[in-house]
Amino acid sequence: MNSAIRTIGILCFVLAAGCAGVQEAPPSVMAGPLIVDPSLDVPKPDRSVATVPLRSEAIQTDVAVAPPPAEPHQTAMTGDEVIGNEPVAGAPAPPAKTPGAAKAVLPPARTPAKVSASPKPVEQSRKNEDPPPPARKLEPPLDVAALKARLRDTNAIGVFTKLALKNQVDDLLQQFRAHYLSGQKTSVASLRQPYDMLVLKVLALVQDSDPPLARTIAGSREAIWGILADPEKFNSAT
Amino acid sequence: MITRTRASVLIFSLAAIVAAPSPAADDPALLKDLTAVIMLLGLPCSQVVNAKRQADNDHIASCKDGNRYRIFVNTAGRVVAQKQ
Questions:
Q1: Does B48 contact A at CB distance below 8 Å?
Q2: Of A155, B29, B45, B59, which cross-links B38 as Cys (Cβ 3.0–4.6 Å)?
């Protein structure tokens, strides 16, 4: 009884192993016969007669069914010349003299890969030839009031962030005001670093959610600094 | 039997109410806003993962790295982040 069960089990295992071993051929292997298959269509003489003048049956059939070659001189080759050549990437499969020989001259599995790889440079060159995107509209540089208004109106940052940002902008403006009121003759270069830091913070906040505003602010950086660094412009702007 | 059924219904109802997250705690815009505020104020916080509303403009923010801050608007109109 046990031996019968064991035998049945072994048979089931062998059967399952056999089923598991059957796999589909990889696509590269499948693609090979697709190229050469027309050469095996010898028994259809009317097709070759219709397309190519007769020389010998096998050659005519191959030439008739094969896709048009890339260069015109290849069409003028005889069967011998074609067989002697190496397969060219992107060119059709070499013709065979007889149907039996066609199987022997099956192209290796890498040939279809070469054929499929040939359109890539064409696509790349097309991409390179694409016209450049239209130039973005250059917005005029912002002043301090416009910058405040843009930051107030944007949805890229929340209410808390806007309020905190307003506090920091006001703090910086207060530093400039204090500097000018103190009557110091030194330049405002010492305030350049806090100004740059604040601009960077603003850019970090809006660059993901509102890229146009970030670009405008980045483009207005020097213009705003020009206003802040000039006492007359500063007084008129604030 | 009826008493047991009523009790279980009550327990499930309470559990559902308690388990339901508050809308503010899961609002990604608020979490992002609080994260930005903390970053703007120069305090360490990788990302705010939870926020508990205490009052208007007053939240307790819990960061991913374990830091907790009370973020509120003071009487002077300034946004303040107090480490808890």
A1: no
A2: B45
